[in-house]
Every structure is written in structure tokens, then in C-alpha cells.
Design goal:
The longest helix is centred in the first third of the chain and has 35 residues. The chain has a two-stranded antiparallel sheet. The protein has a domain of 108 residues. The chain contains ten helices and two strands, in the order ααααααααββαα.
Amino acid sequence: MELLKTGIRRTKVGELAYIGINAALPIVLLLLVTSFSTAWPALALVMLSKWRVFALRPRFWWVNIKANLVDFLVGISYVGLLYLSLGNTPVMLILAVLFGIWLLYVKPRSDHSSVMLQAAIAQFLALTVLLSFSTAPGVNEFFIILGCFAIGYVAARHVVSNYEEEQSEFVSYVWGLALSQLAWLLYRWTNTYDLRLPFKIPQIALLVLVISMAAGKLYAASKARRLTMSLVRSTAIFSAVLIAFILIFARWDVTI
């Protein structure tokens, strides 16, 4: 009985330590960005925070790396948004709170809807940050398109790996390729939406969000054997209306 109580106490201490570390991480990253006025120290800490990926035998490393890629995308996107928001303390604090919610509430969930939400958040934030830096000196169009492919692959794999999908890698590569093709098509005409934030929201991030959520909904329905023509029709119509709204009301004279 004493051993049982000791185990329970250790479990509670471990849970409290986990919550404390995850609650402190957004603030520490914020302080690093503001103190050094650069993103590199914070990015290094994000990478170090993934040390548990390598806590198992080396043959499990690659599997663990792929399983943590979505969280890694959100982490580096958070740092990127902090850097873009330098000098605007209220926005940086709001970002810190949102990242804390991701770490403590969104990230630990494993049901299908939450997994799809995680992938959508990671994909949207990563595209926003990637395209925000697309005009930086030395950034080549090839790396932007390659980055979009990687983002699409990671997001798709996170969703399909939550199902018994035999062709998970193939599906992930196809979505990554589709996203990279869309990026190649829209890169030179990328519009942004100014929401009075230190950073702007690229139009392609919104378009991909709508398309991916529609595709994810239909994919989940097919896996649950609930895919019907009426669901396909309603999803397609709703998505088309949203896409039309995004395109029609875009300011085509504004680019990144």
C-alpha cells in the first residue's frame, strides 16, 4: 500500500511538473525573443524542448520525430510570430496565452476532431510565418515552395496517422504536393489581410485552411463509413462559398 501511495504521489508531482514547464515555456520564449531581438535563441529552446523524442532507442527516433512534427511546427511558428510582433507587447502576451492553451489543452488531446484541429492550426500558423518571411533577403522561391510541401506533408500525416490508413505516407505526400503546387501558383500574387496586427494573414493560408478542413471532413466521414453524396455536396458548396468570399473581397493590389 505504501508503494502504491508513493507511486500516486510521484504521478501527481510529474503531472504538476509537466503543467508548470508547459505554462512557463511560452513566457520563457517570449523573454528570449524580446531580450535578444532575434528568434534564434528561442528556436534553439524549442528544439531542446523536444529532448524526449530521443529518450528511447535510436531505432524509434524517426518515428518519434514524425509524431512530434505538428507540435514542432506550432512551436517555431509561435517564435516566428513573436519575432514579427517585436515592440507590440500586448500582441506578444496574447500569443503567449494562446501558445499556452495549445500546450496544455489542445496538444494533449487525441480524438479525431482534436487531431484535425491540431493539424489545421499547425498548417495555418506555419504558412502564415513562412510567407511572412518570403520577402526577406536571400529567401528563394524554391525554398518557399519546398517549405509548403513539408507543411502540407506534416499536417496530412498527423490526420491520416490517427486512422488505420494503409497508405498514410502516400496520402501525406499527395497533400504536400498539392499544397506546394498551390503555393507555386499563388506565390507571386499572394495577398494579405491586415487585421491591425504586427503581421499579416496570407490569403493562401486561408484558402488552404478551407480546402483542408473540407477534405479532412470528407476523409473522416469515409473512414467512419458515413460518406454520402449529400455530405459531399453540402461540404463542396459551403467550401466554395467561403473560397469565393475570400477571393472576391481580396484586395488584389496588396501583396506581402
